C-alpha cells in the first residue's frame, strides 16, 4: 500500500489496485505549488466535509479523473449540481465496495460548503483494504467517541489532524491514539496556515517518548504502509 501526501488533508492511497484520493485541496495551497494536479489519477475521491480546504479541487479532479465521489449526501448534492456524475452518498454507516469496506464515522467539527450551503455532518473514514485497517479522522477535535473504534477494529494506521486551532493538536492526537489503540500515525492538517503551524521536531519527539510513530511525509512524497 502506498501513501502520497499532497498537503493539508489531501493524500492518495494506492491499494487493492485502486487509487483513493482524499479531501482534494491542492491548487489553492501555496505549499503544494509543485504538485501538478493534471497528473493526478483517482478511482475514488473521499471527502470528509464541505470546507474549502477539503473540496477546493473536488469538482475539477472528479471530472478529470472520472472518479466516484464518496461523501455525505449534502456534499454529493453540491457536487452533482456542478456536473459530477459518479457519486456514492454515505452517512454514519459502512459499505463494501469491490476493493474494500468503508465506514463513515463522526467528527467534531462543522461543515459548510463554499457557496454557503449546509455541508452535512463532518466525518472521518475507516477503511479495510489490502488486509489493513486505516482510520482517517477528517477534521476533528478530540472526542470520546473515538474509543468505539477500539471495539471494532485493530487499526494499523491513523491519519490525524495535528495542527490545533480548528482540530486536534499533537497532544490531543496522542491521547486519541490511546482511545483507539493505534501506535502508527500520519499527521495532516498542519502548517498550511499560520494558526496551524507546528514545531515538527517537537511533535516527532513527543510521539517517540510515548513509543509511538508519527510520520510526516513531505508534500509530494510517497511512502509505503
From TrEMBL:
TM helices/strands, residue ranges: none
Domain Metallo-beta-lactamase: 7-189
Superkingdom in the source lineage: Bacteria
Keywords (A to Z) from UniProt: Hydrolase
Single Gene Ontology MF annotation: hydrolase activity
Pfam families: Lactamase_B_2
Gene3D superfamilies from the UniProt entry: Ribonuclease Z/Hydroxyacylglutathione hydrolase-like (3.60.15.10)
NCBIfam families assigned: PRK00685.1
Family statement drawn from the similarity comment of this UniProt entry: Belongs to the UPF0173 family.
Record protein name field: UPF0173 metal-dependent hydrolase ASU31_02130
Amino acid at each position: 500500500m502506498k501513501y502520497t501526501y499532497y498537503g493539508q488533508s489531501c493524500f492518495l492511497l494506492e491499494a487493492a489496485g485502486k487509487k483513493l484520493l482524499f479531501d482534494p485541496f491542492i491548487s489553492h495551497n501555496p505549499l503544494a505549488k509543485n504538485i501538478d494536479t493534471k497528473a493526478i489519477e483517482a478511482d475514488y475521491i473521499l471527502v470528509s466535509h464541505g470546507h474549502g480546504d477539503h473540496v477546493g479541487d473536488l469538482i475539477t479532479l472528479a471530472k478529470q479523473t472520472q472518479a466516484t465521489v464518496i461523501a455525505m449526501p449534502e456534499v454529493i448534492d453540491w457536487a452533482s449540481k456542478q456536473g459530477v456524475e459518479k457519486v456514492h452518498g454515505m452517512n454514519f454507516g459502512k459499505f463494501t465496495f469491490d476493493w474494500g469496506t468503508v465506514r463513515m464515522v463522526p467528527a467534531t467539527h462543522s461543515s459548510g460548503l463554499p457557496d454557503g450551503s449546509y455541508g452535512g455532518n463532518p466525518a472521518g473514514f475507516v477503511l479495510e483494504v489490502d488486509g489493513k485497517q486505516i482510520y482517517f479522522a477528517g477534521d476533528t477535535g478530540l472526542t470520546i467517541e473515538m474509543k468505539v473504534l477500539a471495539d471494532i477494529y485493530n487499526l494499523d494506521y491513523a491519519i490525524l489532524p495535528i495542527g490545533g486551532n480548528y482540530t486536534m493538536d499533537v497532544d490531543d492526537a496522542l491521547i486519541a491514539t490511546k482511545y483507539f489503540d493505534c501506535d502508527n500515525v500520519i499527521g495532516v492538517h498542519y502548517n498550511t496556515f499560520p494558526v496551524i503551524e507546528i514545531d515538527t521536531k517537537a511533535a516527532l519527539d513527543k510521539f517517540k517518548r510515548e513509543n509511538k510513530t508519527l510520520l510526516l511525509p513531505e508534500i509530494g512524497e510517497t511512502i509505503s504502509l
